[in-house]
Amino acid sequence: MARQRSACYEAGFAVRQWIDAPRQSEPSATPDSGSSPALRRALVAPPAPPPSSGRCPSCGRARAGRTGSITLGLMADAPYKLILLRHGESEWNAKNLFTGWVDVDLTDKGEKEAVRGGELLKDAGLLPDVVHTSLQKRAIRTAQLGLEAADRHWIPVHRSWRLNERHYGALQGKDKAQTLAEFGEEQFMLWRRSYDTPPPVLKDGADFSQSDDPRYATIPSELRPRTECLKDVVERMLPYWYDGIVPDLLNGRTVLVAAHGNSLRGLVKHLDGISDEDITGLNIPTGIPLAYELDADFHPLKPGGTYLDPDAAQAAIEAVKNQGKKK
Ligand SMILES: O=C(O)[C@@H](CO)OP(=O)(O)O
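Above: query sequence and 2-phosphoglyceric acid SMILES. Below: predicted holo C-alpha cells.
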C-alpha cells in the first residue's frame, strides 16, 4: 500500500500544536497547590525537548514545543492503544441493502458478533478505558454488548455523528444485487468504493432521509450530508479524531472506536496513509476488533493493525467484498 501523508498530516501537526498549547478551560495547577515538590516540578517545568522535536518531520515547519502547559503531567508516552470495531451484522446487512444513515438494529448474529468482539478484547487483555461511537443504534449496541462481555460496561462513552456510517444518498434502502444488475459493475463499484464519487443526492423528506431526525437537528444544514463519498467521510470524521479521540490517547487511555464499515475505512486510510486508489480495495469485517499501537506521531507501529481473530477477519472481509454479488 502506498503511503500518502500530506494535507492530513499537516492538519495533524496543526492540531498537535493546539493540543500542546495550554487550555483555558482546564484548572490551573500552581506551585502553591499543595502538591509535593517533585509533582510541582513535573506539572510546571517544561521537559527538555527531544533532539528531533524542533521541526515537523513532514513539512519542516518549526514545532510549537510543549512549554509550561498544565497538561504536561498528564501526557502519556506512546505507543498509544486504539481499537477499532465495526458493528455486528445489521438487519440491512443481512438483507443486502444499502444502509448509510438509516438507523437499523443488529440481527441476532450481529449481537453474538458484538459479544464475541468483547470476549476477544478481554482474552487479549486489551481493556478500553473510554469508548467513542456514532449516533447509530447498530454501533451503540455493539459497543454496549462488547463492553459488557469484557466487563467494561462502566467506562465513559462519547458519541458523535462524525463517526456515523457514510451517508449513501439515494442508494439508501436499495438492494445491492439489484443495483449492480441495473447499473453495471463499474458504476456500482464507483458508488460503493471509489474515493471521490458520491451516489446521487437523497432529497430532504424522501424515504430513508434523516432530514427530520432529531438527533441531527443541531448539525448546521450546510454540514448535514445528503450523500457522501469516502472523501467526504474522511473530511467530516477527522475533526472528531483530532478533537475527540486524540486527546484521550494522549492521556494514556486505551480507546475503543465502535463505528461503521466506511467511517472506519476513512480512519484506517488516514492512520495507515493509504492512497486514494488503494483504499478502494479495503473492506472491514463486522464485529472483529482491529487493534493498533500508535507512535508519538500517531503512525501505526504495525501498518494495518492486528485483527484479534485474523482467520475470521479474512473470511468476513471476503464476504463484505462480494456483497453486491449476493442473490
Ligand atoms: O450499506 C452500507 O451502509 C455499507 C455498510 O454496510 O455498505 P458497503 O459495505 O456497501 O459500503
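The radius of gyration is 21 Å.
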